[in-house]
Specification:
This protein is of the alpha+beta class. The protein has a domain of about 80 residues: 2-Layer Sandwich (Ribosomal Protein L30, Chain: A). It is built from four helices and five strands; from the N terminus they run βαββααβαβ. Strands 4-3-5 form a three-stranded antiparallel beta sheet. A two-stranded antiparallel sheet has the order 1-2. It is rod-shaped. It starts with a strand and ends in a 5-residue tail after the last strand. The N terminus is likely disordered. It binds L-tyrosinamide. L-tyrosinamide binds next to strand 3, helix 2 and helix 3.
Length: about 120
């Protein structure tokens, strides 16, 4: 809240009558306009050839998952065809997905990840 005196008696250029000169204006500051960045999931896709152990390793390396959680997600991908592994801003999701796909290729596995926008609720 900013408190402004429209004018005071020391303002010599203000020729309004005294009661008006002493008017106090309370000005409400505008709410800051903020917007959350859009978020993206990194999704792992199932295939028939990538070893389960390799997928678990990918989840440990790129998503800092513990072995139990990584195994659960790997099995979710294996049984359902795909599963989200983490949620990030677009640049981070994109970078992780590219790095995973490169790592899989470097190791001659067909594992692929992709990113998908998450609908924001506001
Ligand atoms: N379906 C693979 C197998 O049976 C394992 C696998 C899991 C592959 C998850 C990819 O994203 C994946 N060896």
């Amino acid at each position: 809240m900013t408190v402004k005196t429209l004018s005071t008696q020391t303002d010599r250029k203000d020729h309004r009558p005294e009661p008006e000169r002493d008017l106090l204006v309370l000005e409400r500051q505008a709410e800051p306009v903020t917007k959350k960045p859009p978020l993206y999931s990194v999704i792992l896709l199932n295939d028939d050839y990538t070893p389960m152990e390799f997928v678990v390793k990918v989840l440990e390396i790129f998503f800092a998952m513990h072995r139990d959680q990584a195994t659960q997600i790997m099995l979710a991908v294996h049984t359902t065809g795909s599963a989200p592994c983490g949620v990030f801003t677009r640049d981070i999701a994109e970078t992780k997905s590219v790095q995973i796909n490169q790592y899989a290729q470097d190791n001659q596995h067909p594992l692929v990840s992709e990113i998908e926008a998450i609908d924001d609720e506001d």
